[in-house]
Write a structure and sequence with these properties.
mainly alpha, about 290 residues
Length: about 290
């Protein structure tokens, strides 16, 4: 009986040792990737707060030990600047929620990088670094992009689905993005591109026949333009044929009335309309 009691723990220990590698193989990659994501988010948040703090306090430096959310929450090195302290506390709480963007739904390398890059596009991040000069903001973002690349190089992609499976549901929005706040600026790359089937279905191909049919259609603006052009032509013809001759006749009549009112001036005889000039051959022979 005593031998059986000693043998039972040995059998149980052997059973645990045999099953532990199988359990580690199925659980370790996803858990390790999640821990890597959380560590990277903490590193991004630390670098962001360090840059803003060092710019605000030229004589003080942000402690290197503040790599976690809880450590930064207990930090109180702001002096009498209560507004800056409140800003840091608010961003520290908001940036901690970045960790919930990965671990549910898709957990492949593409989603890993996409969710890390969304941290740099978050409106809270942009609001927090708004007072930095432009060159320092650019330098900060580039430094954090290098951190993201280093984390992606450490990602364990052994459980990632095949490329064909990713192409089948590439347009699906993961559940982790359901409660995420939209970024203020549009991302550099489209995080959820539309599948080719939807793009092909919504794109219309205009052939020669369709373009000819569209060109033959006229709307009300075309007809209004044609009507105004015809009215302008008729008005111009009326002015040339009726208004101008009548105006000329009135001017001639007015000129005659003025000449009649001045008898001291010898008025030349007005030639009769349609009369031929007088024959002066006799005058020329006499000369």
């Amino acid at each position: 009986m005593s031998r059986l009691r000693l043998l039972f723990p040995a059998i149980f220990l052997l059973y645990v040792i045999c099953l532990a590698p199988c359990y580690a193989q199925t659980e370790a990659p996803a858990a390790a990737n999640k821990r890597l994501f959380d560590r990277t988010v903490d590193e991004l948040n630390f670098r962001t707060m360090e840059t803003v703090y060092d710019k605000s306090f030229t004589r003080n430096k942000f402690p290197v030990s503040l790599r976690s959310h809880q450590a930064r929450k207990q930090f109180d090195g702001f002096g009498a600047n209560t507004d800056l302290k409140k800003l840091f506390q608010n961003y520290n709480d908001a940036s901690e929620r970045f960790k919930s963007r990965f671990g549910k739904g898709r957990t492949d390398l593409v989603e890993f990088e996409r969710q890390l890059r969304s941290v740099l596009l978050d409106k809270n991040f942009e609001f927090f670094i708004r007072n930095l000069p432009r060159d320092e903001r650019v330098a900060l973002i580039r430094a954090e992009e290098r951190v993201i690349k280093q984390a992606a190089a450490q990602f364990n992609a052994s459980e990632d689905p095949a490329p064909d499976d990713l192409a089948a549901d590439g347009a699906a929005v993961p559940p982790a993005d359901a409660g995420a706040e939209p970024p203020v600026t549009a991302p550099i790359e489209d995080p959820a591109p539309q599948p080719e089937a939807q793009v092909t279905g919504t794109t219309t191909i205009t052939g020669p026949a369709q373009r000819g049919a569209e060109a033959s259609r006229h709307d009300w603006l075309d007809y209004l333009t044609l009507l105004l052009a015809a009215a302008s032509t008729l008005l111009l013809a009326h002015v040339i044929l009726n208004v101008l001759p009548d105006l000329r006749a009135r001017l001639d009549g007015l000129a005659e009335e003025l000449e009649e009112q001045r008898p001291d001036i010898v008025r030349p005889k007005r030639p009769v309309a349609g009369a031929l000039p007088e024959d002066r051959y006799e005058d020329e022979e006499a000369n």
